[in-house]
Amino acid sequence: MPQPPLIPYTELPLDGLDAGRVEALWMFVASGPDLQRVLPDGRTDIVIRFRLEDDGETLSRPRIVIAGPTLHVRDVPAQARTGLMGLRFTLGWAGACLGVSPKLLRDRELLHEDAEALISAHAERLKRCRSLTELKRQLVSTGQELLLAARTTPGQLLAVEAVRLLRSAPERPDLKLLCRQLGVSERALRREVIEAVGVPLRSLASIVRFHRAMMLMREPGARPSVVAAEAGYSDQAHMNREFQRYGRFTPAVPMQVPLIGRGAPPSGAGRNVQDRCDSRP
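Structure tokens predicted for AraC family transcriptional regulator:
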């Protein structure tokens, strides 16, 4: 029997979705039993799980999952023919679009009725899809309608701007300076970030720094001691600890791990690593 094609983590065209509020439309199909390592990145995704048939286009048994932001690395089992297609919200936008605070979704996956309840007007259309082409079209349509219905608040928009400044900072984020730039107290900013993003402000800053360091480590001739300084760590040992904490690997491993968004500048780092990677440190 022919095996279904492997489709490693692949980002698809957004097809008109607002790139400021939707970070990625993505797909992954496993070629055999394996573990998919998912790194913490603070994002929330609408994910459709399905079984891909031998022709590489027909799918069956689509199921909806809402994957909330996480602070922990995890290895997810993936069976042959298992496929995933997802819509990843930009940091700070999931709650406004789904109508629920991401802090209630932290370190959780909503399944079945719980997931469908958040996108009730779209769930049946997504579950009726029987091809990759149809599923992508319906997921884009779902995203467009959720974006149109998004309910923004001043606090959520403040959190979005804080995230933008964190990700564009050339070095270790200075939270006191960030608060001065935004004209708010640190307590108020912490409250708005955890409400809009779902993870604490300092944890988010650490995750952004970790992804920036991974991007820098992939540059030709990258030296860990130099990368540690550029990414904003106090020293190389500090970076090593953070890599073990968020990835369970050493800074040398990203040279072999397929890192999504490699072509983006370091200030745009922060995307997840969805491809298979060696679980050995």
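The longest helix spans residues 132-148.
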